[in-house]
Amino acid sequence: MNIKAAIQAYRPYNIQEEKDKKTILSFLEQYEDAFYRENELAHMTASAWVVNKDKTKVLMAYHKIYDSWAWLGGHCDGNEDCLAVAIKEVREEAGVHEVKPVSEDIFSLEVLSVDSHYKRGNYVPTHLHLNVTYLLEADERDEIHIKEDENSNVAWFKLDEAIDRSNEKWFRENIYAKLNKKLRETYEID
Q1: What is the pLDDT of residues 139-171, one digit of tens each?
Q2: Residue 103 is part of which domain span?
Q3: What percent of the chain has pLDDT over 90?
Q4: φ, ψ of residue 64 in degrees (nearest 5)
Q5: Per residue in 6-45, pLDDT tens?
Q6: How many domains does the chain have?
Q7: In the chain, which ranges are E strands?
Q8: Burial of 38 (0-12, 13-18, 19+ CB in 10 A)
Q9: How many other C-beta atoms lie within 10 A of the C-beta of residue 75?
Q10: CATH number at residue 97
């Protein structure tokens, strides 16, 4: 199933996802370059909520740009296979080799605002990330390492601790809390 069809078929978890789903689908209809960051208004990204086998811990990286612990993920850069992008980003950002989808279905949708910043000496204007999130699993005993140009640390945290570690209020309250709540409900985790 292509990503547009997968997004159309996705059942939003809450009002935020319902509205963001409409925004993402509308953008995909209007812009042929939606999967390229050259579209400076908005572009597709893929993220991963990476859990251990027991689904009691989350793998996060300390991102330099955001100065915060955060999920793993990145730009699609022309690749419309968002699941493959999420897996690739986990491998690159955390050094995890054995990572697999808990399900190939979309786990969450978000439209995220990104403040202007400098990356590798280049100015990046404020824009939107039209984000597709997948629930991935990795072995917490595997070796992990940083990606020096993007993050300064990578670590596993208990579900609630992962939320507390983030410095980004919107993500803590509206994204990470949602992901954990959905994880607990879907997989009946205490």
Answers
A1: 999 999 999 999 999 999 999 999 999 999 999
A2: 3-187
A3: 94
A4: -65, -45
A5: 999 999 999 999 999 999 999 999 999 999 999 999 999 9
A6: 1
A7: 42-51, 57-63, 68-70, 72-75, 99-101, 108-114, 117-119, 122-124, 127-138, 151-158
A8: exposed
A9: 16
A10: 3.90.79.10
